């Protein structure tokens, strides 16, 4: 048991191109084999509500699959894939967040499986992901949920992110939230 816990902690430090395990969540690098699952999740009403038109979002997500500045993961727990997270080099994707520390990364995510929402998984896997990245030397992680997406805002707050201010994002007004190392 102690070895298993230590193994999880070691894996949580290896966050770039390898499968990452932190607590009870696995962050498996997304591949083209995952695209049908991502397409299905984007069409779920609870995802579509905040991510927008599924075909448009699918084109963006699938188009970023081989982009070096964008890390994409399928999130699972208990052997079940249930979510998606993308972590990107802020300077490559978004300059509308103002001055940020060198090396800051942005995240966007969703829980795709309807049966997994409203069970605490969002805040828990966000915290696990951010903890591992920040422990590995990342100075800051940011995200920009729609201010009206109260479920997402609460999940980020529970995961240690702080609200800063609203920003103009490509999809409209967003709430900039940050978590520092």
Explain what the structure shows.
This protein has 181 residues and is an alpha+beta fold. The protein has one domain: 3-Layer(aba) Sandwich (Aminopeptidase). The chain is 36% helix and 30% strand. The chain contains 7 helices and 8 strands. The chain has helices at residues 2-13, 35-42, 45-51, 54-63, 90-93, 121-135, 150-158; strands spanning 20-22, 25-29, 70-77, 80-89, 105-111, 140-143, 162-169, 172-180. Helix 6 packs across helix 7. The longest helix has 15 residues, at 121-135. It is globular, with a radius of gyration of 15 Å.
Short account of what is shown:
The protein contains seven helices and eight strands; from the N terminus they run αββαααββαβαβαββ. The model is unreliable at 1-22 (pLDDT under 50).
Give keywords:
181 residues; alpha+beta; Aminopeptidase; 8-stranded mixed β-sheet
Layout: helices, strands, pairs:
Elements: H1 2-13, E1 20-22, E2 25-29, H2 35-42, H3 45-51, H4 54-63, E3 70-77, E4 80-89, H5 90-93, E5 105-111, H6 121-135, E6 140-143, H7 150-158, E7 162-169, E8 172-180
Parallel strand pairs: 5-6
Antiparallel strand pairs: 1-2, 2-3, 3-4, 4-5, 6-8, 7-8
Helix pairs in contact: 2-4, 6-7
């Amino acid at each position: 048991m102690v070895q298993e816990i230590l193994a999880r902690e070691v894996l949580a430090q290896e966050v770039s191109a390898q499968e990452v395990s932190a607590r009870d969540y696995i962050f498996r690098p997304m591949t083209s084999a995952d695209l049908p699952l991502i397409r299905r999740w984007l069409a779920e009403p609870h995802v579509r509500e905040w991510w927008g038109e599924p075909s448009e979002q699918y084109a963006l997500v699938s188009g970023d699959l081989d982009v070096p500045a964008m890390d994409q993961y399928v999130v699972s727990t208990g052997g079940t894939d249930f979510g998606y997270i993308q972590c990107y080099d802020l300077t490559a994707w978004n300059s509308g967040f103002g001055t940020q520390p060198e090396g800051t990364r942005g995240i966007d995510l969703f829980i795709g499986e309807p049966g997994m929402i409203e069970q605490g998984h969002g805040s828990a896997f966000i915290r696990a992901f951010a903890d591992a990245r920040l422990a590995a030397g990342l100075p800051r992680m940011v995200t920009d949920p729609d201010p009206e997406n109260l479920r997402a805002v609460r999940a980020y707050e529970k995961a240690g992110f702080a609200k800063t201010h609203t920003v103009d994002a490509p999809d409209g007004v967003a709430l900039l939230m940050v978590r520092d190392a």
